[in-house]
């Protein structure tokens, strides 16, 4: 544990809370609309799912920024590798892309 | 499969049950949701895994946000392990596009059986240093244990094993649609010096990234049906909220035995299905 870790913990908590709230709201409204009439707002559920998937990635980006500001090279490198791994997953997703 | 309001409600309830258990045990709920969706509701295991991974992300984000500030989660150690677990999950997500349903079910049975056995074998052990003056090192941690009513300090041991387990957990996570906490929590608790609660909280933090690596590939390949996913995610959110309220007061030994019993049942059911 180092000084600054507690602040990062609170920031991460805030980003995750916003992401969860936004995606849950889209999914809840989207689900109700989809069950009433599938033609109402089909994009809303996809927005909710994309927000959900983007939330942990946003948390990794936040960590990268914080470690860059704190000049913590070891953890800057580690968190950057994690982000690159997630990006390679996104590239694989495009390779396997099929419409539902 | 067309999702009617009745089916959406069933998926919601299944999600709520899985989410409550997952939050109690620090596993993300996927280990319970995949069998419910695959064996119970007849979704292909790839679709069940995709839906489950989406709920795992939601649980991880919600649990992490809820526990931020309690010092139970070890962010630094978690971020080191994420390097291994994210690599494992992306590779697992790619592999899952080429593997048969029966093989995945047998793998699911094997993983859950192994974890149940390890959990029972170690249900009496605690890796806690009682003296709060011990130096936790760079990656260790300290937190206030509500069950024991005192501060607890621990050091991290066996770093290569922790990294290896995280890679395997990431891989299995994407293949089977579980968070991977089911592998990481016992390993971190049994061999790496982490108390169960700290291991569970740190795992809950990591599995968001783990599940994202796999979920994005399933989403891209069209295996994540939005309506079913939304119903499951909302159910899991409600369930894990309830589970999170209960978790600080449940005794560790009860948690471990409950986990082992459920895993035993899941393993048997998956094996029977995978052998047909």
Summarize, please:
The complex is a heterodimer of chains A (100) and B (276). Helices cover 83% and strands 0% of the residues of chain A. Chain A is an all-alpha fold and 100 residues long.
How would you portray this structure in words?
The complex is a heterodimer of chains A (100) and B (276). With 100 residues, chain A is mainly alpha-helical. Helices cover 83% and strands 0% of the residues of chain A. Chain A is built from three helices and no strands. Chain A has helices spanning 5-36, 42-69, 73-95. In chain A, helix 1 (5-36) packs antiparallel against helix 2 (42-69) and helix 2 (42-69) runs antiparallel to helix 3. By secondary structure, chain B is mainly alpha-helical. Chain B contains ten helices and two strands, in the order αααααββααααα. Chain B has helices at residues 5-25, 30-40, 45-67, 75-96, 101-121, 159-176, 181-191, 196-220, 226-246, 252-275; strands spanning 141-145, 150-154. A two-stranded antiparallel sheet of chain B has the order 1-2. In chain B, helix 4 runs parallel beside helix 8 and helix 6 runs antiparallel to helix 7 (181-191). The two termini of chain B are 23 Å apart. Chains A and B meet through helix 1, helix 2 and helix 3 of A and helix 3, helix 4, helix 8 and helix 9 of B.
Topology:
The complex is a heterodimer of chains A (about 100) and B (about 280).
Chain A: H1 5-36, H2 42-69, H3 73-95
Helix pairs in contact in A: 1-2, 2-3
Chain B: H1 5-25, H2 30-40, H3 45-67, H4 75-96, H5 101-121, E1 141-145, E2 150-154, H6 159-176, H7 181-191, H8 196-220, H9 226-246, H10 252-275
Antiparallel strand pairs in B: 1-2
Helix pairs in contact in B: 1-2, 1-9, 2-3, 2-10, 3-6, 3-8, 3-9, 4-6, 4-8, 5-10, 6-7, 6-8, 7-8
């Amino acid at each position: 544990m180092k000084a600054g870790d507690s602040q990062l913990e609170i920031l991460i908590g805030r980003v995750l809370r916003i992401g969860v709230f936004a995606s849950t709201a889209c999914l809840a409204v989207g689900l109700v609309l989809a069950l009433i009439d599938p033609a109402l707002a089909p994009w809303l559920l996809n927005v909710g799912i994309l927000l959900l998937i983007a939330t942990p990635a946003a948390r990794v980006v936040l960590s990268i920024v914080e470690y860059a500001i704190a000049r913590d090279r070891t953890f800057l490198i580690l968190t950057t590798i994690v982000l690159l791994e997630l990006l390679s997953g996104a590239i694989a997703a495009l390779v396997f892309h099929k419409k539902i | 499969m067309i999702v009617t309001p009745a089916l959406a409600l069933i998926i919601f309830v299944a999600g709520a049950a899985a989410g409550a258990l997952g939050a109690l045990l620090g596993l993300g709920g996927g280990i319970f949701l995949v069998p419910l969706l695959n064996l119970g509701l007849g979704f292909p295991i790839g679709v069940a895994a995709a839906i489950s991974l989406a709920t795992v992300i939601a649980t991880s984000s919600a649990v992490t946000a809820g526990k931020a500030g309690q010092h139970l989660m070890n962010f630094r150690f978690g971020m080191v392990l994420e390097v291994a677990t994210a690599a494992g999950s992306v590779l697992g997500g790619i592999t899952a596009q080429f593997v048969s349903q029966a093989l995945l079910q047998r793998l699911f049975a094997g993983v859950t059986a192994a974890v149940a056995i390890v959990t029972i074998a170690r249900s009496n052990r605690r890796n806690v240093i009682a003296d709060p003056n011990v130096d936790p090192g760079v990656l260790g941690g300290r937190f206030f244990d509500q069950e024991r009513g005192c501060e607890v300090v621990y050091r991290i041991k066996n770093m290569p094993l922790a990294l290896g387990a995280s890679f395997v957990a990431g891989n299995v996570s994407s293949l089977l649609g579980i968070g991977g906490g089911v592998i990481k929590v016992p390993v971190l608790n049994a061999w790496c010096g982490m108390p169960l609660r700290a291991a569970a909280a740190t795992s809950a933090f990591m599995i968001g990234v783990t599940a994202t690596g796999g979920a994005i590939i399933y989403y891209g390949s069209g295996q994540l049906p939005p309506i079913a996913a939304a119903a499951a995610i909302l159910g899991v959110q409600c369930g894990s909220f309830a589970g999170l309220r209960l978790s600080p007061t449940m005794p560790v030994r009860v948690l471990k035995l409950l986990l082992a019993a459920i895993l035993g049942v899941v393993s048997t059911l998956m094996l029977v299905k995978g052998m047909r």
